[in-house]
Every structure is written in C-alpha cells, then in structure tokens.
Amino acid sequence: MSAEISPQDRELIEEYCHYLQYEMNRSAHTIRSYRSDLTGLASDLQKRAAEQDELLPVFRVATLEDFRAWLAQLTQHGMSRTTMARKTTAIRQFMGWLVRQGIREDNPAARLITSKQTSHLPDTLSQKQVRQALDALYEAVRGESGDPSDPLALRDVAMFEVLYSTGIRVAEIEGLDIEDIDFSRSVVKVTGKGDKQRIVPLTAPAVRALEQWLSAGRAKVLGDKPQTPAVFLGARGRRIGARQIREVVNEVLRRLGDTSASGVHVLRHTAATHLLDGGADLRSVQELLGHESLQTTQLYTHVSIDRLRQGYQQAHPRA
C-alpha cells in the first residue's frame, strides 16, 4: 500500500496540474500522467521518511539523490524507457515550477538526465490487411438479412474508416462533434494536443460511412436519451470513451489473425505510412497528423523504406 502524502504536497501537485491545464494548455492525458508520477514520487519519499511521526512536505526538501534513487528503483522493476523519460520530465518541470513559485530556491532535478529511448519503428498494417478488416466490418453491418440493422456495427465501420482516413488520435476522434464535419468539402475539424485545431480531409468511403451512421445508426443508439453533440456514441447513448474505441479497434485487429499489431495508434501509423508509400509530401503528412516536429513524421519514412527494401529483396534477381 502506498504511503500517505502530506496535505502540503498534495496541494502543490493539484496547483501544478491546474497550471498545466489552464496556463500551459496541456492535454487531460498528460495531466493525469504527471499527477500520477508526482503522487507516486511523493508517496515513495514519504515512505522513506516513515520514522517521522508526522507527514512532511517532502517536495520542499527532496534532493537530486532522492530523485535518482526513485528512478533507479523503477528501472529495476522493469519500467519502460518511454515511461521513465516521462517521469524524469515530470519531476524536472515540476521542481522548476516550484522555484518559479518561490517555494524552493533551487531545482535539484535540473541535473536529471532523461533516458535515451530506443528507436522503434511503429507497427503498421498492409493495405491487404486494412481491406480485410473493413470487409469484416461491412459484413457485420449487412448481417444475415443483408440490411444494416445493427447501429453499433454502423458506428464501428464509420470509426474505423475515419481513423484510417485521417490518422487522428483516439482522443481526437473521441472529441469529434457533428458540427466538426463538413460534408460539402469532405473534411473534418480536429482538436488536437494543446487544443490546436486542424482541418483534415476525409476519404469518400469515410464520408459514406459517416453519413450512414449519422442517418441510420446514431438516432437508434441515442433513443430518448439526452441529446449530445458527439459524433460517436457508446451503447448507452453518451459520447464514446477512449477505452471503448480501443476495444472496438483491438477486436478488429485480433480477428485479422495474421498481425501482432494492436491499438488505435496502429491505424494512425498505417495511414501515415500508406500516404508516404503513395507519394504524399512529408510536410502534408505532418500537417495531417498534427505533428509539431517534422522529425516525428520522418519516422514513417523509415517504415516505407523498410517495405521498399523487403519488396526489392524479394523481387530483384541479384538482391
């Protein structure tokens, strides 16, 4: 069981999260992660001072050695490098904020070094696998009678088509409202990280799937429940959550049987890779995905090159 945290430390964490939300415009996911990281750190530091009769405000006295010892312990427990890098950043930025607030005179975490992350090419689906996944979804829509009778099947087709069409993130499709869709121009307005908005084009199949879901499926799911602007709904008629979206996509991917790929992000990676395979400009893909750095988008060029190399080695007589 985690040790308790002093009221002073808990208040500092909440004030910092408020700062992240309203001044830094950080995403809800980032704020949850940082809150969890800092709470875990405070809990561990408090546990080490368990001989004290009262809870101490540990963040006011924590040292660089304290932070290094905590991170080393997490590493020994098998924490991934990506997670370790995030926790290191959370500590360093939080302690810097304490200094700016006049709560501490020094930032001992300024010398913390972020672990180097290993380069990992993202999992993607082949065009054949995407077609197989969509064929299965459309088959579920038609059902035994050949008529679209299951509204949730219509929703699942539309979600998958939109995710593959646009490469948007799970939080972005979760937050889509009906007014964000411009059917006349076949585009959708997406609100990404930091509440930054961008316009993303929709493929013709994605537009058709959305139209069918909105005209024939959504009203059935909503029933007489309170109205909502959300495009995609859960079975109870409320805005669908990220967890439900992941479950739908993961089930589709599991049914493919010939891939280890999982998660909604696979469709984001796949959309980017297929666009680059088809000759799309790197800057255009960057804008489509909402990447701040072109370096992030360039990762997908390595996937495309790997595919080219594999095809070359299979096809060229002297490869």
UniProtKB/TrEMBL annotation:
Signal peptide: none annotated. Keywords: Cell cycle, Cell division, Chromosome partition, Cytoplasm, DNA integration, DNA recombination, DNA-binding. InterPro entries: CB (IPR044068), DNA_brk_join_enz (IPR011010), Integrase-like_cat_sf (IPR013762), Integrase_catalytic (IPR002104), Integrase_recombinase_N (IPR010998), Integrase_SAM-like_N (IPR004107), Tyrosine_recombinase_XerC/XerD (IPR023009), Tyrosine_recombinase_XerCD (IPR050090). It is found in: Cytoplasm. Residues 120-313 form the Tyr recombinase domain. Residues 7-99 form the Core-binding (CB) domain. The active site is at 169, 193, 265, 268, 291, 300 (o-(3'-phospho-dna)-tyrosine intermediate). Transmembrane segments: none annotated. Site-specific tyrosine recombinase, which acts by catalyzing the cutting and rejoining of the recombining DNA molecules. The XerC-XerD complex is essential to convert dimers of the bacterial chromosome into monomers to permit their segregation at cell division. It also contributes to the segregational stability of plasmids. Forms a cyclic heterotetrameric complex composed of two molecules of XerC and two molecules of XerD. Belongs to the 'phage' integrase family. XerC subfamily. This is Tyrosine recombinase XerC. It comes from Enteractinococcus fodinae. The gene is xerC.
